Amino acid sequence: MTISKELLDVLVCPQCRGDLQLTAGKDGLVCPKCRLLYEIKDEIPVMLVDEAVRLDENLKPLK
After folding, report:
1. Tens digits of residue pLDDT in 1-28
2. Percent helix, strand and coil across the chain, each rounded to 5?
3. Longest C-alpha distance within the chain, in Å?
4. Where are the domains of the chain?
5. Residues in CB range of 51: below 8 A, 6 or more apart
6. Are 21 and 30 in contact (CB under 8 A)?
7. What whole-number distance in Å separates Cα of residue 52 and Cα of residue 56?
8. What is the pLDDT of residues 26-58, one digit of tens each?
9. What's the CATH architecture for 5-54?
10. Which of 5, 9, 16, 31 is buried most, with the most CB atoms less than 10 Å from its CB?
């Protein structure tokens, strides 16, 4: 089961309030503006800025 379309429509980035995009693997939500990845664990998006994964300019996780 994945996140419902209705939930995706109302979720925004907690840092900038921008739109989020579902990852190709449907295991996270990406804010392209802030370059943050919010992981989805047990079908629940973890919408905490402190737990988000920072992404580079190509939206790949920083190493």
Report:
1. 577 889 889 999 999 999 999 999 999 9
2. 15, 30, 55
3. 33
4. 5-54
5. 38, 39
6. yes
7. 13
8. 999 999 999 999 999 988 999 999 999 999 998
9. Single Sheet (2.20)
10. 31
